[in-house]
Amino acid sequence: MEASTTTAAYPVTRRPIWERDRPRSSAITVSSPIGSTSMVTKENVETPRNTSAAVARRDERGMRSPDPGKRCDAGSFSSMTDSSHAEFRIVGGHPALDLVNTVTPRLRDGAAEHDYLTSPAELLDWSRRIGLIDLRDHSAIEGTWRSAPELAAKALGATLEIREATYDVLAPRAAGAVVAIDGVKRSQGSAFERLMLRWSAAAARSMLIPGADRERGVAELVVGTSPAQLIPDRLVVAAVELVRTVELRQLRACPVDDGGCGWLFLDRSRNGSRRWCAMEDCGTRAKIRKLGERRRATAVPQS
């Protein structure tokens, strides 16, 4: 499909993967003149129902640390199909939390074994996977980034800054998080300032247009008028909306002290009892470890 960077006809809203099979009532529509419309939702989800079984396995390759100031070189964009994040879970329940969770584990000192967004190629594929962009957006962004690698590096750097700022703001308030107040790499005040600056830049590249055939509201917010910055623009709009509206009783962190990964997620279970990012992953490992500890504790010593 031919990519277009000019204003095109606005299509019927296409629901992203985290919003399928759920009501539309509490979603914020952000669309793009490139020809896509995505929805940043306030609803919680688990791993999407239509995700293949392979997606249910956590990718544990590599030993790389996150660096929000990192700028990749042009060569890192040479292969758009080489993605190291294809199998890790999407469990945050909100795109801003899914962004935060592209680092694993999330530890007290900020160290991480793996960063899933180390190149523009990984960022582009991840954005498509979570439904932040559609195929037409993907084509337009890829074409722009290939022709101007410095813009790809700039978009990646902005995304990593948004990711770490969002984490710094939310982690101290998440139930189960292990975050020392003096151990957060940057203060909450600084994190709010970084989000505000990124959001202001995204707003300057956005438009408000009349919304036709809408059941609610009379206008539509168009976020992403520039392919080069479309992904970080949509992510910061999502992050600011989450920071502004999150129900803190639902904000949780996978418990590091009990063997969890520290990822953030929204607990919208019926009785508010969700503890792990995914029971099949961190929860199962914790159960196996505790079972082993009990067996060792009750084992009869050899005479």
TrEMBL record:
Tell me where the transmembrane regions lie.
none
The annotated regions of Polar residues compositional bias extend over 38-53
Comp. bias regions, Basic and acidic residues:
56-73
Source domain of life is Bacteria
Gene3D superfamilies per UniProt:
Jann2411-like domain (1.10.3300.10)
The name of this protein is: Zinc finger CGNR domain-containing protein
- Where the record annotates domain Zinc finger CGNR, the positions are 251-295
Name the SUPFAM superfamilies on file.
Answer: Jann2411-like
Kindly name one Pfam family recorded for this protein.
Answer: ABATE
The record's InterPro entries line, in alphabetical order, gives:
ABATE (IPR010852), ABATE_dom_sf (IPR023286), Znf_CGNR (IPR021005)
Renumbered residue ranges of the record's region Disordered: 38-78
What does the record give as the organism's lineage?
Bacteria, Bacillati, Actinomycetota, Actinomycetes, Propionibacteriales
